[in-house]
Every structure is written in structure tokens, then in C-alpha cells.
Design a protein that fits this description.
This protein is an all-alpha fold. It has twelve helices and no strands.
């Protein structure tokens, strides 16, 4: 008997039971994932999807786990399944971008991060990943726009201030870069890279 036959037989009761079991397996998988037990987490998410394969977010997290296990092609297939189910879900485009970045497919990754920030303009990690790729492509001014977005969302994001400062260094805008490194150190006084950036800026002023 297939899953849809079960739904037809006792729609409400069976559907609630299946959704409950699927969530329980996903919750168990999340705990395993957070503990760094990726194989166990994958097994749990597979169990969840056996119960209910219609939840886009579960496919997305499974993709992340597969990525941790260096199974990037399988991970991308999970992303595609998640996108088929809900192309506007927050998170899946970010996950796909991460996997593509690991494969050094940076232009495709950028396209994914663009989709993610359209769906969730407050996703700091997506803006950060986009900014870092742009920086690596020698597009510091575009990268700075990304880091500015993060700072607008969360002024206490020390990494965003540091990365903005690093991009400004490339542009030889030392005074502005120094200010960014100062902000970094105000948030995280132990950031040795920001300290080095400060020293470099002072030597150029």
C-alpha cells in the first residue's frame, strides 16, 4: 500500500500520525547533527523523509548533512528536491550556494545567494558568503555593499566589520578601513586579524 493509499483510507488520522513521526525523526536528526554525529543525523532525516517526503526544509537540512559528509552531488539533488517542493522557502538557496562554493562553482553560488537574499533579505550568512565571493573575484566595492547590508541588519556583527575593512584596504581607503577594524575590535577585542589591519592602516596614514 502506497503512502497516498494510506491518506485515502483514513485521511485525517493517518496524515497526523505520519507528520508527527516525520517531525520526531527530524528532531532526533537535528540533535545528532548538532552533536557532530552526521551519519546518525542522516539516518534520522532519511527516516523522516520515509514518513513524509513533502517537507522542503527536511530535504534542505539533509543536503547540509550530505555536504558535511563530502557527498556534494547527493546534497545538490536534495536541494533541487527542496526547491521543487517550495522554491520560496528560506534557507535552501543558501544551502545550495554553500555546496556550489565548496565545488568552486562561484558564479552559480552567487546566483543562489542572490535568490536567498531576495527571499530573506535579513540572512546575514547569505550576504556574507556573497560578499566573500565578490571579494575573491576582485570586486571589493560590490563586496562592501554586501557587508554594509549585514551591518544594517546587525551592527554587532564583528566579521562583517572586519571583512568590510579588508575590502577597503584593497581600495587603499585606509582611514575608512581603520574605522572598520576599530569597530571589529570594539565588538571582539581578541580579533588578532583586526589588530593587524589597524597596524597596517596606521602605517599608511
Amino acid at each position: 500500500m502506497g503512502i497516498f493509499d494510506i491518506f485515502r483510507k483514513k485521511p485525517k488520522e493517518k496524515l497526523m500520525k505520519i507528520e508527527s513521526d516525520a517531525k520526531a525523526w527530524a528532531d532526533k536528526g537535528s540533535l545528532a547533527w548538532l552533536a557532530g554525529r552526521f551519519e546518525a543525523a542522516l539516518e534520522c532525516y532519511n527516516k523522516s523523509l520515509e514518513q513524509d517526503s513533502r517537507v522542503a526544509g527536511v530535504w534542505s537540512v539533509k543536503a547540509l548533512i550530505l555536504s558535511e559528509l563530502n557527498k556534494s552531488q547527493e546534497a545538490l539533488l536534495c536541494c533541487e528536491r527542496s526547491i521543487e517542493l517550495d522554491p520560496t522557502a528560506s534557507g535552501v538557496w543558501y544551502v545550495k550556494g554553500l555546496i556550489l562554493s565548496q565545488q568552486e562553482c562561484y558564479d552559480e553560488a552567487l546566483a543562489c545567494y542572490d535568490k536567498e537574499v531576495q527571499i530573506d533579505p535579513k540572512n546575514e550568512e547569505a550576504w556574507s558568503c556573497k560578499g566573500m565571493i565578490l571579494g575573491s573575484q576582485f570586486k571589493p566595492e560590490e563586496a562592501i555593499k554586501c557587508f554594509n547590508k549585514i551591518i544594517e541588519i546587525n551592527p554587532r556583527n564583528a566579521k562583517a566589520w572586519f571583512r568590510k575593512g579588508s575590502a577597503l584596504l584593497i581600495l587603499k581607503r585606509y582611514r575608512e578601513a581603520k574605522s572598520c577594524f576599530e569597530q571589529t575590535l570594539e565588538i571582539d577585542p581578541n580579533d588578532s586579524d583586526a589588530t593587524e589591519g589597524m597596524i597596517l592602516c596606521k602605517s599608511k596614514l
